[in-house]
Specification:
Helix content is about 0%, strand content about 45%. By secondary structure, it is an all-beta fold. The protein has one domain (about 1-170). The strands form four sheets. A five-stranded antiparallel β-sheet has the order 8-7-6-5-14, with no helix packed on it. Strands 9-10-11-12-13 form a five-stranded antiparallel β-sheet, with no helix packed on it.
Length: about 190
């Protein structure tokens, strides 16, 4: 059980060693999860974006080994103004971090960079997907080739939408800002 200390709901992650789905309890709501996250790898971050707030949970698979440790599972929980969860969305990305979550196309919904294996063992494909549907939001993608020491070469890049400094000061920033949540182990 976790207590954040700043009026966020209490959080419990229930992990099962057998085939039962793990459970996430946020406040009084219980969510059955599709993926099993190793509890010791689980991180919780609060995202403030425009007028919306989320709790983002991310971690490695429960039985990950070898290249499986490259895969990050995400759970994005939307919070209403009373800090109650209104729903969750699960997604995954290879080499994923909290920095994968942005509003790429500035449509006021959060998207994420999804990295998957390419056709060859040393290639990876990058797409931008909607956090709610897990579907690509654009036909654009990038193909990366892995080199030694965690370096990649961009083999192909068709992303046509530039993410960078805003040209118009009224334009919304595509990045969601994440705050680390101070977590205390509550017994």
């Amino acid at each position: 059980m976790f207590s954040t200390g700043d009026h966020l709901p209490s959080i419990s992650y229930i992990s099962y060693a057998d085939n039962r789905n793990d459970m996430l309890m946020i406040g009084k709501k219980r969510f059955e999860l599709l993926s099993k996250i190793a509890p010791l790898s689980l991180r919780v971050v609060r995202i403030r974006w425009n007028t919306k707030q989320f709790l983002a949970f991310f971690g490695k698979g429960q039985s990950a080994s070898g290249s499986g440790v490259q895969l990050t599972y995400f759970i994005l929980a939307r919070l209403n103004p009373s800090m109650n969860v209104t729903g969750i969305h699960e997604f995954e990305s290879r080499f994923g971090t909290i920095d994968c979550i942005i509003d790429y196309n500035r449509d006021e919904t959060l998207d994420y960079f999804k990295i998957t294996h390419g056709k060859k063992s040393d290639e990876y494909s990058v797409t931008i997907n909607d956090t709610r549907s897990n579907k690509s939001i654009t036909a654009d993608n990038a193909l990366l080739q892995y080199k030694l020491n965690d370096r990649f070469i961009i083999m192909n890049n068709t992303f046509s939408y530039h993410i960078g400094p805003k040209k118009d000061p009224k334009q919304r920033d595509p990045y969601a800002y994440a705050d680390s949540v101070k977590v205390k182990n509550k017994r």
